[in-house]
Structure formats: structure tokens, C-alpha cells
């Protein structure tokens, strides 16, 4: 039992930025736009650091896949308390088509290489909202998964996970090694402190190429078009319930 | 797009509607330095960007939501400031051995600029507290540093800087509060005016007269709350800076141990001025944050408010006005950061540059905030909108830590004394 936790962190457009679609409709504008760590990834890092502080795990390794700027995101994780980082370099065309399948292959390969006991990811990224990487990683490794976790308790070589599901809360017990994905109410991420930011400078970030991990990045998905959501239409007032039902039937909603 | 919806609904209805949405909208646009020509993270090192990010996050989450309440209810936000201290903001440029963060003046400026977007008044008090911690750390002996600094850096205890008196403001060196040596104590008599934090803080860094007239007769004593003979005047009612209490500090045969004296007798004025050099950069940085937040608020308003059939953003006068505001903001920022660097490196031009920065930046940023208020029209005058608080809060930056007139004295003296 290595006691090692891998945490995936993704660099995304900052949640407070107003998104603009590129004029050629091939995607959104990212040049010169403020980026930061995906909020669910922050929650994942916080949970991993908490486990280390409780001495339930020995080492927290932050992983990010992307271009040079992904290192900033890893540094933020280090400032929050991760011990070291791994930057998987993906840039150019490969980065444009990088999706959950490719990232989960990378995470699976790293989990084997680093002898990880637990992988914690955010439940989804706020740019693509895929909600797939955690699940795919678990499938590739044939590990149990505790997704949408709102509470995580380590119990010997098992993990008790309270999951937020449509019907309410579900509690499961899974064996380790396992993959967890963090939901909103799992914890409140700490602010990095000034001393920790300075200490983070000395922590190591290793550079790895996907090819070194034996991962093929080709994607079978092709983005055809990206558009703004439709403008909100004005509603209308009706006098009676019969009118309302009539209008609903007219528009084919009922 | 969601953030703009409520505001356009308000302008169409022309009334105070969706108050919560409006305040959330204001907060959201204050949150991040949206990438554009006024982004305050340009030119910074990766580490400085991290410091700035923490400060912006803290300001947006812990301060901005309470900024209006703290102003209206005159709350001294002790718990929030202690949270800030846990992150290292209690003694940013105080040395680490006594609990400080040991960062540079430039790092400090960046942090205060970001914090100020959340609440100018609270950030300004934190900067005064930092100044006092630094003075004790720099001019105190090891015993004094170990006695006072750790509690100040953690904000277990709060500090106040006491120089101004009813009879001596700009003419600070003419102060009258006397400290008569009696054995191993000094007995203080006199009063200080306009003391930020006065009455609520624990540690008072007091400039008092131990010798003859003029600056060379002044020493610096640290007086602790609870010392017999130490009392406070009524809490002043102010136009802004309402999240920090301001009171007179009164000494009546107040006996202070001589071991509380920082440095030598006669060194007090020098210590006070050295503290103020950094204080001036900090206050200017607070003005920067307010101006930055105000420009973002004005910009967002121009994009939403419609008159004469189109958004205000299509009006060339307002476009040009916004451009001028942005230019003054960036120019101010560059001057403050250069002054911070000069002070850090102890350059020959440090004192003049700090004075120039304080003079230029507090004036220009007040104008920027004021113009941002004007762009809001009638809404700018309502306390539901944050821009009026930025204007009220930074107005005093042109007055304290040395009036802008005194800044001109310092600069002209530098020019005209060299022959």
C-alpha cells in the first residue's frame, strides 16, 4: 500500500469570465482570457490534502494534462498542500482534441506507474461539463468508483463514500485502489497561504510526454460547430387555465 | 449573460428590483481581473500572480459580500481580518522569524491592491497594522520583536499608529505629547487625534517628545491597551473608512516601561517617517484597487444601460472617458510598483518616489472612482451600488499618511535643495 493519492487538476477558463464564441464558430475564445483551476478540481485537491493531514495517506501528487500553462495550475495545487506535480505535456492539435477518454488513459497509465492507491478527480470540468474522466479511468483500471462524492471516509483498505444522486444521498463502501470524483459539497477548498505559495516554488513538477506512458491521443470526436445559446424569448401571459393548456398543446409541449 | 439580465431588467423598470441579484452582479464583476488592458497581473512573476490570486479570491469571497454592511453598521471585522492573517496578511513585509511573511514591498502592494477590491476601509486598516508590525520588527530589539510581533502577525492583537495630534497634523514634528523619564519608566501626557483603530486595538506605536523641540526630540514608544492613564475619545463619525473605528488616544500620567521604547531617544521621528514611506505605497495601492473595481463596474454598466435607443457603450464621450480612466489607472499602477521596488532596494530616489506615487495615485484614482460614479447616473448615488463606497472610502487617502500637499513639499524640497 503506497499511500499515494493522484489528483487530476484541469486548467479551464475562469468561472467568472464571460465566455465568447469565436467568430468562425469553431470554439470559444481562449487567447488572453483568464484561466484558473477547475473549481471541482480544487475540491479534489482539498480532499486529498485533508487525507494527508489526517495521516491516512502519505503523498499527494497533482497531475495536469495540457500545454506549458498547465504548470500554473499544478503550482496552485502545490500551494494548497500537494507534495509534487506531474505535468503531462499536450499541446497544439493534440490539446484541441484532448478529451475525457485521452485523459483517463493518461491517468490510468500514471496510476500504474506511480503505484497510486486513490485517484481523486473533480466530478466534471466547467468548460466541457463531460463528467466522464473519473468513470472512464476507473473502467480502464478495473477499479471501483465513488463518483459525486459529498463525503469520503477511509476505513482500513475500504472507502465509505456518500454520493449525491438524483434521489438523494447514497452510501457505498468500495475497496481500494479506487477512483473518487468530488462533488460541490465535499469540502470548502482552503486558500493557499503566503508561506505555502513560497514553499510550493521548491516542490518538484516532473515533465512527462503521453508517448512515454504509451498513450495514444487520437480522438474519434470532431467538433462541428460551437454557437451561443439562443436568446431568451419573452414569455406571454394568459387569462385562464384553459388558455394555458391550449397554448401548451399548440407548441407541442403537451 | 446571466449576470447582465437582472440589471437590464432594472433599467427597463426603472426601480429597485431584484436587490439580491444586483448586489451579486456587482460582486461578480468585482471578482476577477478580467483579461484586458487593465489586468493587474501583467508583468508579474508566477509567484506574485499566486499571491495576487489568493488576495483577489479572499477579497471576493470574504470581504466584498460584507463591504456595504461593514460600512453601514460600522463593524470592525475582527474575524475576517484574523482569517486574512492566517493566510499571512498580518505581517506581509515583517520578517518570518517573528511570524511575518517576509515578502517584498512590491508583493505587498500587489496584495493590498487586490484586497482593496473587496473593501478599501478594511484593507487600509490591515495596511496600517502591517506598518506598525514592521516598525517594531525593524527598529525594536530582539526582546521587543519577540514580545509584540508574533501576536501582531497573527492578528491575535491589533495595532495603531499614533503620530497626529489636534495641534500637529502636517507639522508632525511639532507634536506635544510628552514622555518624561522617571526611573525605568516614561510618563506620557497628551493626546493623539484621528487614530485608526483607536480604542479597539491592543498595541499603540506612539511618537512622543522625550527631548527638546523639533524632530530630534521625538522618541517612539509602544503603549499597550489597559495601561493605566490610557483612554480614548468618542468614536468619530466619518464619511468613509467606517469599518475601522477612529478615536482620539489620550495619555494622562500614563506610565510606560522604558523597555517599550523602539530604538534610541530622538530616533522616533525617523522611525515614524520610515514607516510612512511604506505606508504611502500601501495607501496608494488601496486606491488602485478601488479604481480598478470602479472601472470594471463602470464598464459593465455602460454595456447594459440603454438611453436614446442604444447602450451607453456606444456613446463616444463615454468610450473616451473610460479609456482615460483606464489609462490613469495603469499609469498609477506602474508608478506605485516602481516606488515599491525603489523602497525595497533602498534606492536614492525611494522617498521621493513614494511621495510622488502617493500624491499622483490617490488623486488620480479618486477621480477615476468619481467618474465611474458619474457614469452610473442616479444609480451611482445609491448605497445599493458599490461605486459610491469606493469614492467615499478613498477620498481620505488624499489626506492621511501625509496630505498630498505635504507630498508636494517633500518632492519640491528634493528638487530645490539640489543645486
UniProtKB/TrEMBL annotation, chain A:
Domain Electron transfer flavoprotein alpha/beta-subunit N-terminal: 25-217
First-listed, main subcellular location of the protein, grouped into a coarse class: mitochondrion
BP terms from Gene Ontology: amino acid catabolic process; fatty acid beta-oxidation using acyl-CoA dehydrogenase
Listed GO CC annotations: electron transfer flavoprotein complex; mitochondrial matrix
One MF term in the entry's GO annotations: electron transfer activity
Subcellular location: Mitochondrion matrix
Keywords: Electron transport, Mitochondrion, Transport
Assembly and binders: Heterodimer of an alpha and a beta subunit.
Role of this protein: The electron transfer flavoprotein serves as a specific electron acceptor for several dehydrogenases, including five acyl-CoA dehydrogenases, glutaryl-CoA and sarcosine dehydrogenase. It transfers the electrons to the main mitochondrial respiratory chain via ETF-ubiquinone oxidoreductase (ETF dehydrogenase).
Family in the record: Belongs to the ETF beta-subunit/FixA family.
Protein name (database record): Electron transfer flavoprotein subunit beta
Protein species of origin: Poecilia mexicana
TrEMBL record, chain B:
Catalytic activity line of the entry: 2-methylpropanoyl-CoA + oxidized [electron-transfer flavoprotein] + H(+) = 2-methylpropenoyl-CoA + reduced [electron-transfer flavoprotein]; propanoyl-CoA + oxidized [electron-transfer flavoprotein] + H(+) = acryloyl-CoA + reduced [electron-transfer flavoprotein]; (2S)-2-methylbutanoyl-CoA + oxidized [electron-transfer flavoprotein] + H(+) = (2E)-2-methylbut-2-enoyl-CoA + reduced [electron-transfer flavoprotein]
Keywords: Branched-chain amino acid catabolism, FAD, Flavoprotein, Oxidoreductase, Transit peptide
Cofactor(s) needed for function: FAD
CDD domains from the UniProt entry: IBD (cd01162)
Residues in Acyl-CoA dehydrogenase/oxidase N-terminal domain copies: 45-156
Gene Ontology molecular-function annotations: flavin adenine dinucleotide binding; short-chain 2-methyl fatty acyl-CoA dehydrogenase activity
Enzyme class, broadest EC rank: oxidoreductase
Name of this protein: Isobutyryl-CoA dehydrogenase, mitochondrial
Origin organism lineage: Eukaryota, Metazoa, Chordata, Craniata, Vertebrata
Amino acid at each position: 500500500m503506497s499511500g499515494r493519492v493522484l489528483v487530476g487538476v484541469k486548467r479551464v477558463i475562469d468561472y467568472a469570465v464571460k465566455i465568447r464564441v469565436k467568430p468562425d464558430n469553431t470554439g470559444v475564445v481562449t487567447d488572453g482570457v483568464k484561466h484558473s483551476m477547475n473549481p471541482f478540481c480544487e475540491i479534489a485537491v482539498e480532499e486529498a490534502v485533508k487525507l494527508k493531514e489526517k495521516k491516512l495517506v502519505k503523498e499527494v501528487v497533482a497531475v495536469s494534462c495540457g500545454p506549458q500553462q498547465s504548470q500554473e495550475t499544478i503550482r496552485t495545487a502545490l500551494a494548497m498542500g500537494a507534495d509534487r506535480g506531474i505535468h503531462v505535456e499536450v499541446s497544439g492539435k493534440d490539446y484541441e482534441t484532448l478529451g475525457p477518454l485521452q485523459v483517463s488513459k493518461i491517468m490510468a497509465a500514471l496510476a500504474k506507474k506511480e503505484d497510486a492507491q486513490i485517484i481523486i478527480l473533480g466530478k466534471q470540468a466547467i468548460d466541457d461539463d463531460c463528467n466522464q474522466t473519473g468513470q472512464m479511468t476507473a473502467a480502464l483500471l478495473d477499479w471501483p468508483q465513488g463518483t459525486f462524492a459529498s463525503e469520503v471516509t477511509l476505513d482500513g483498505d475500504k472507502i465509505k463514500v456518500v454520493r449525491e444522486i438524483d434521489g438523494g444521498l447514497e452510501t457505498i463502501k468500495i475497496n481500494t485502489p479506487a477512483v473518487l470524483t468530488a462533488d460541490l459539497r465535499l469540502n470548502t477548498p482552503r486558500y493557499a497561504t503566503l508561506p505555502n505559495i513560497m514553499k510550493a516554488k521548491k516542490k518538484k513538477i516532473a515533465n512527462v510526454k503521453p508517448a512515454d506512458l504509451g498513450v495514444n491521443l487520437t480522438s474519434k470526436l470532431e467538433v462541428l460547430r460551437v454557437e451561443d445559446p439562443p436568446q431568451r424569448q419573452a414569455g406571454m401571459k394568459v387569462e385562464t387555465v384553459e388558455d394555458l393548456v391550449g397554448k401548451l398543446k399548440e407548441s407541442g409541449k403537451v | 449573460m446571466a449576470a447582465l439580465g437582472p440589471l437590464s431588467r432594472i433599467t427597463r423598470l426603472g426601480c429597485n428590483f431584484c436587490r439580491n441579484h444586483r448586489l451579486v452582479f456587482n460582486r461578480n464583476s468585482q471578482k476577477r481581473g478580467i483579461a484586458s488592458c487593465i489586468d493587474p497581473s501583467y508583468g508579474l512573476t508566477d509567484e506574485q500572480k499566486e499571491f495576487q490570486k489568493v488576495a483577489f479570491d479572499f477579497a471576493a469571497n470574504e470581504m466584498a459580500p460584507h463591504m456595504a454592511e461593514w460600512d453601514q453598521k460600522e463593524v470592525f471585522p475582527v474575524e475576517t481580518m484574523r482569517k486574512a492573517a492566517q493566510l499571512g496578511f498580518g505581517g506581509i513585509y515583517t520578517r518570518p522569524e517573528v511570524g511575518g511573511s517576509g515578502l517584498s514591498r512590491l508583493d505587498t502592494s500587489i496584495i493590498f491592491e487586490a484586497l482593496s477590491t473587496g473593501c478599501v476601509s478594511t484593507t487600509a486598516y490591515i495596511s496600517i497594522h502591517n506598518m506598525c508590525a514592521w516598525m517594531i520588527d525593524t527598529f525594536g530589539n530582539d526582546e521587543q520583536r519577540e514580545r509584540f510581533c508574533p501576536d501582531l502577525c497573527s492578528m491575535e492583537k491589533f495595532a495603531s499608529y499614533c503620530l497626529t495630534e489636534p495641534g500637529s497634523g502636517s507639522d508632525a514634528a511639532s507634536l506635544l505629547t510628552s514622555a518624561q523619564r522617571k526611573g525605568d519608566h516614561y510618563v506620557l501626557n497628551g493626546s493623539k487625534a484621528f487614530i485608526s483603530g483607536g480604542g479597539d486595538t491592543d498595541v499603540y506605536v506612539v511618537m512622543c517628545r522625550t527631548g527638546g523641540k523639533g524632530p530630534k526630540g521625538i522618541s517612539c514608544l509602544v503603549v499597550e491597551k489597559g495601561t493605566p492613564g490610557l483612554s480614548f475619545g468618542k468614536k468619530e463619525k466619518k464619511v468613509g473608512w467606517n469599518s475601522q473605528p477612529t478615536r482620539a488616544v489620550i495619555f494622562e500620567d500614563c506610565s510606560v516601561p522604558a523597555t517599550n521604547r523602539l530604538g534610541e531617544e530622538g530616533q522616533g521621528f525617523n522611525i515614524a517617517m520610515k514607516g510612512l514611506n511604506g505606508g504611502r505605497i500601501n495607501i496608494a495601492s488601496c486606491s488602485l484597487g478601488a479604481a480598478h473595481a470602479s472601472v470594471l463596474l463602470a464598464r459593465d454598466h455602460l454595456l447594459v444601460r440603454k438611453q436614446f435607443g442604444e447602450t451607453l457603450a456606444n456613446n463616444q464621450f463615454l468610450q473616451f472617458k473610460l479609456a482615460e480612466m483606464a489609462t490613469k489607472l495603469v499609469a498609477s499602477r506602474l508608478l506605485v510598483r516602481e516606488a515599491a521596488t525603489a523602497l525595497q532596494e533602498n534606492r536614492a530616489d525611494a522617498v521621493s518616489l513614494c511621495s510622488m506615487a502617493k500624491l499622483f495615485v490617490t488623486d488620480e484614482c479618486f477621480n477615476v472612482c468619481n467618474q465611474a460614479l458619474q457614469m452610473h447616473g442616479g444609480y451611482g448615488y445609491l448605497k445599493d451600488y458599490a461605486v459610491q463606497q469606493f469614492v467615499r472610502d478613498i477620498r481620505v487617502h488624499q489626506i492621511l499618511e501625509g496630505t498630498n500637499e505635504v507630498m508636494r513639499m517633500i518632492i519640491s524640497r528634493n528638487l530645490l535643495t539640489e543645486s
